């Protein structure tokens, strides 16, 4: 059996055990930022809009569970960046499924899709699917080029600007 943290759910249910690690908004948003390429604490905090304490707590929990590892990028002052481990990368299909569900069920009809994913091999947008509708091949994150909608890019830029004013 794979190792799990000492404070695992008092159950053999894999869903309950998974929720122990990733079952809150802030952890999911931290993971989203890591998948989007953010590696530094400030960038993760800005885009999740979590407090520094919340961000620290979530990153430490993900590190303790083996989903994230810290790597120093500066010695003076000592600063770390956060990288997804193999275990952390394996969670991506869950984030992708949440994205598809949110695009389908949590948006107004007039809102554009926040992220577009294009299958590198055939050059077609995969929409919300994990199988390319053009060539029929299953796709993973490594097979896709991502681009943000204008509204999502504007929203993220506004967070950065607002954070720097504080």
Mean pLDDT across the residues is 92
Quaternary state reads single chain
CATH architecture of the largest domain: Orthogonal Bundle
Q: How many DSSP H or I helices? A: 7
Distance between the termini: 47 Å
The portion of residues assigned to helices is: 40-55%
Strand order of the largest sheet: 1-2
Largest sheet: 2 strands, antiparallel
> By CATH's scheme, which homologous superfamily of the largest domain applies?
Winged helix-like DNA-binding domain superfamily/Winged helix DNA-binding domain
Number of separate strands: 4
Going by helix content, strand content and strand pairing, the class is alpha+beta
Task: Identify low-pLDDT runs.
Answer: 1-5
**What would CATH call the class of the largest domain?**
Mainly Alpha
CATH topology of the largest domain: Arc Repressor Mutant, subunit A
Whole-number tally of structural domains: 2
Share of residues in strands: 15-25%
Radius of gyration, whole Å: 17 Å
Shape: globular
Strand/helix succession: HHHHEEHHEEH
Compose a concise summary of this entry.
By secondary structure, the protein is of the alpha+beta class. Helix content is 45%, strand content 15%.
Write the layout of secondary structure elements.
Blueprint: H1 14-22, H2 25-35, H3 41-48, H4 52-64, E1 68-75, E2 78-84, H5 86-89, H6 92-105, E3 115-119, E4 144-148, H7 150-165
Antiparallel strand pairs: 1-2, 3-4
Helix pairs in contact: 2-3
